[in-house]
Amino acid sequence: MGVLDLAACPVKSGSIYPDPYAAMMAGRSSLRLGQAGGLTQFGVNLVTLEPGAMSSLRHWHENEDEFVMVTEGECTLVQDAGEHVMRPGDCAAFPAGDPDGHHFLNRTDRVARFLVVGTKAPREVAHYPDHDLLLQIEGTEARCTYRDGTPWAGPREPK
Hints:
By secondary structure, the protein is an all-beta fold. The protein has one helix spanning 33-36; strands at 11-13, 28-32, 42-49, 60-61, 66-72, 75-79, 82-86, 91-94, 102-105, 112-119, 123-128, 133-138, 141-145. The mean pLDDT is 95.
């Protein structure tokens, strides 16, 4: 494949999250570099966060590793242990199975970008510690459930 034409790379915006969480991803998009290059064993995406946007709900993966490198602007990494401001060249790694929920926020008035590299496990479960939500992926099929495995039917009232 060789050199990628960035102008021809697919761009993904929106979310596979159910409502009301999908709307929370406004201002986030990703350039699907790995897909454009024909990669099948791992994903490579250049994520853009507009001012005020978030990368995802805070989450962790059972089976997929993630690596992030900030390339432009400033992002705040939010993890269980707290927050860390990241700037160009700063990196973070999230090993599969580590239940440290994480996501990135753009709290600045400028666009921020970061490169994400992650494995593509044939079966994945993403956990969302701040929400009663699991995302289960089998091949190309994704489905949302509550933590107890019950099919998703909208946010539950806190008990």
